[in-house]
Amino acid sequence: MATQQEVQVQQKREVENDRESTVPARRYVPVTDIFETDQALTVVLEMPGIDKGSVDVRVENDILSIEGQVDLSKYRALAPLYIEYNVGNYARSFQLSSKIDQDRITAELKDGVMTVTLPKAEKAKPRRINVS
Amino acid sequence: MSLNLHDPFDALFTLQRALDARRGSEWMGRGTAASGSYPPVNIFQQGDDFIAVLEVPGVGKDNLSIEAKENTIRISGRKAIDYGEDTSVHRRERLSGVFDRTIALPIDINPESVRAEYHDGVLALFIPRAEHEKPRTIKIG
Questions:
Q1: Out of B5, B28, B121, closest to residue A82 by CB
Q2: ipTM
Q3: pLDDT grade, residue B115 (50/70/90)?
Q4: pTM for this one?
Q5: Would the CB atoms of B88 and A33 count as touching at under 8 Å?
Q6: I want to staple A30 with a disulfide (CB 3.0 to 4.6 A). Which of A37, A90, A98, B119 is the partner?
């Protein structure tokens, strides 16, 4: 590509239909890409400011849920002057199909991007059939 | 003047309200963005100095370039997304591409002492005020 397009700003979306919480703070939906290969389904979420210690990835009742908590201590001594984006925790969940082998799900987090790899169960992988 | 985040139950709510109150504030004047709009920036004051916080998830230190002049900061780089061949994309929300944003500050800064830190997709710039912009206390004779 000779010239690349410019990245656009994305406004954060709040979680809709959120379960009521005891704390009146906003939660945001992390921007997500989902793609599939023969081996696995991969979910990639952007959660800037979240590190390994503040993220929770779990699978329960066929639902994959990812939550990230933002670290507020860094903001303590600061006075806001000019603000373009708000800061908050992230939450998103996905319904998993039976094609996924839940025991082999892995996740990694780098530079604020979480990649969750959902390997397909053996029977769900495409099988080549040899023609004799 | 700094954020009172001591109540653990309301700390996040307090922060979010404080940020909302200053959203798009006039502090930057009319020259908000000398050019470009990504990455979004939040600017804070700590004592006499400024801290600019920008969200650049997935960009990485090697793809970021920062330049400082008397009253401008320029952040440029590339956000690359590559999922390889033989992939079938079901959902595409992330954006990629190049970015080049120059922020003009209303106060002169000291470019030599600007410090940058990058963690988990967040770039923090510690921007000291220029010497000639520092207020001098005046004694009453």
A1: B28
A2: 0.85
A3: very high
A4: 0.86
A5: no
A6: A90
